[in-house]
Specification:
The structure is a homodimer of 362-residue chains. The first copy, chain A, has 362 residues and is α/β, with parallel strands linked by helices. Chain A is elongated, with a radius of gyration of 27 Å. Chain A folds into three domains: 4-52, lambda repressor-like DNA-binding domains (434 Repressor (Amino-terminal Domain)), CATH 1.10.260; 61-156 and 293-327, Response regulator (Rossmann fold); 158-289, Rossmann fold. The first copy, chain A, has a six-stranded parallel β-sheet with strand order 2-1-3-4-5-11, with helices on both faces. In chain A, strands 7-6-8-9-10-12 form a six-stranded mixed β-sheet, sandwiched between helices. Helix content of chain A is 43%, strand content 16%. The A-B interface holds A 1, 44, 46-51, 53-54, 59, 61, 69-70, 72, 75, 79, 82, 86, 91-96, 98, 108-109, 111-115, 133, 137, 252, 278-279, 282-283 and B 1, 44, 46-51, 53-54, 59, 61, 69-70, 72, 75, 79, 82, 86, 91-96, 98, 108-109, 111-115, 133, 137, 252, 278-279, 282-283. The structure holds a DNA duplex (16 and 16 nucleotides).
DNA sequence: TTGAAAGCGTTACCAC
DNA sequence: GTGGTAACGCTTTCAA
């Protein structure tokens, strides 16, 4: 495979010149330029991204950290990321996280400069140490569906989401409303589910609907698990008449459990989910929609613009006699981190209905 | 950020030694070793993958080329890839392909050495030029759901898949069986749909079922498009009693069209899909299952083992006085490329039924 | 506008 | 075992 000096030799110019035409630097005479281009063509030359990266200090790569990559909601966000990356000339490196250990490994790797020019972190509150390291290393980071001090983020109001779902159920006349979520004390620090539950509680209390601890259950983000959990509820004597699940995946499990128990939805049981993943429209699930695709797209958008700013301010590499560049801050003029809050919306489909009076107390 | 020489200086050793402990080369005395480790710890040193790659000739990266990344089947394959990559220490770089131009760009980029150590190509027959270039560059390539001369591949027998689906319908007594697929003359050279159609034709002919050109339709891999196409069929006087769709996505569109037309499935219309994506089990679609997840997992598996072999044979880089290594072949001992054919299986659910005699000729 | 040369941070070779 | 040093292929000064 030809190198830049092969090209230079063939074209009868110096490597610097070849580099200049490669990087569209205008300071190259037209005849020289075309000679170089011809040489590139003939030798089928392709620049080495590795060498380019090492030399310029930019890897032209974006790192994407996603927990449970296989979840429909993560995939949907990923779609948005890929869409937002089109025509950007950045490569996307994917890091799937399935365990806290893996999370830490990946964070450690990505934290060192030059693995990625920028980092997109999904649904994962970064450990404080890692976050600090990134910020101090000057690596632009954007958090999607997660929060962290001092970095840009794309979020939704989960508490409000919980309120929206629960309010809908209360307005339909339900009083025995169950909540199914994910364990609040998980090793990753995911908090969405707990926040949605908070909204659920608020609305129940505000409407004087008595809370019943037995109507709150936690399980893994998994259809079958939700199905088992729901079955316990549905076969009990004083079963709930409605359920709010903190994810559509769990909601579909609840739907399945209802079928198992011979309960009709929405006549005998109302179900509200959260997310609005693709499957939800197929099964007619009423749910709180969050803009998953958009969150990914906006995430990269923020990251790309941060990278843009970065490039114009920061020298590509420390040159010999030049005082080292340092991040923003000596005068406390740390810019307010960007926070984009995406809207939540109740999508009414066919799994919720007004509580039939005859059902009460059966 | 600390470099290897910072570490060397701090530990009072040479950079070579640091490199040795980093690469777990045993040739280093225990006391030295721990001193280096301590220095690494103190300085919070992280090796630069870029520099490492440039020097060693390996980027520790695998390239994944996927067309229409957003399709459920692609995602399912990708899940397999990610699963197969766990604990492998390779980074995954994702290249989504949405147009022939994009395909060529990405192929061109990935073909140059050092972008990726190995390449996984999905559902995309590589242009002959690119394929030749990769092979001659010695970059291991594995094709998943695509075929190409001289490279490893993971495939299924699409013609047989078409036979399986059609045979099922014929055995249920259907005679007006439609086929919906994707355009046979697409710019990417996808051939799965055409091959499945071939199987469809074979079975029809073998059973003396007359073929009707009006019962063959092509449209994009898109639910709504399929819905529109199917509506034309279903509202015609001599409508088909069964449809074989070359993908589950199209099949769900057909199901929707049936609903629009007031046709009951499977009583009035039988539908068989292809793929068995997640949604299919939700809607009870009878389909020809292909191991999507497995195809991805096995694909990386093949790639990783090719990389392994590669590493043991090929010098990491040309050293000064040493004749250049060349790919296998002077004595025609080109190894037979590995071809893994994955099994197809008919998954019976609730969208197909025996043709009711009363329906005939209505 | 151009060529020469100094890095970029590693690995791998070659002596000691 | 270990240190020194030449690559690796590029970008970016610095002179000319």
């Amino acid at each position: 495979m030809a190198t830049i000096s092969d090209v230079a030799a063939y074209a009868g110019v110096g490597v610097g010149t070849v580099s200049r035409v490669l990087n569209k630097s205008t300071k190259v005479a037209e005849p020289t330029r075309s000679r170089v281009l011809a040489a590139i063509e003939v030798l089928d030359y392709r620049p080495s991204p590795l060498a380019r990266g090492l030399s310029s200090g930019r890897s032209h790569t974006l790192g994407l950290l996603v927990p449970f990559f296989t979840h429909a909601s993560a995939i949907e966000r990923l779609r948005g990321v890929v869409a937002g990356l089109h025509n950007s000339h950045y490569d996307l490196v994917l890091f799937d996280v399935e365990s806290p250990m893996q999370r830490d490994e990946h964070f450690a790797a990505l934290t060192g400069r030059d693995r990625a020019d920028g980092l997109l972190v999904m649904s994962l509150p970064p450990p404080a140490v890692e976050l600090a390291r990134m910020v101090s290393a000057g690596v632009p980071v954007v958090l999607v569906d997660a929060r962290g001090a001092g970095v840009a983020m794309v979020v939704t109001d989960d508490v409000e989401g919980g309120r929206i779902a629960t309010r809908h159920l209360v307005e339909l006349g339900h009083e025995r409303i169950a909540f199914m979520g994910e364990p609040p004390d998980n090793p990753f620090g995911f908090s969405s589910s707990a926040l949605r539950e908070q909204g659920y509680r608020e609305v129940l209390d505000a409407n004087g609907v008595p809370r019943d601890a037995r109507l709150v259950a936690y399980g893994a983000h998994d259809r079958e698990m939700a199905r088992r959990l729901a079955t316990k509820w549905l076969t009990a004597r004083d079963r709930p008449t409605a359920v709010f699940a903190s994810s559509d995946v769990q909601a579909t499990g609840i739907l399945a459990a209802a079928g198992d128990s011979g309960l009709r939805v929405p006549d005998d049981l109302s179900v509200v989910g959260f997310d609005d993943i693709e499957i939800s429209s197929y099964v007619g699930l009423t749910t709180v929609r969050q803009p998953l695709f958009e969150s990914g797209r906006i995430g990269v958008e923020l990251l790309l613009s941060a990278l843009e700013v970065d490039r114009s301010r920061k020298p590509t590499r420390a040159t010999k006699n030049q005082r080292p560049w340092s991040p923003p801050g000596p005068h406390g003029e740390v810019p307010e981190p960007i926070v984009r809050e995406l809207p939540l919306e109740l999508v009414l489909r066919t799994t919720t209905a007004r509580l039939e009076q005859r059902t009460v107390g059966v």
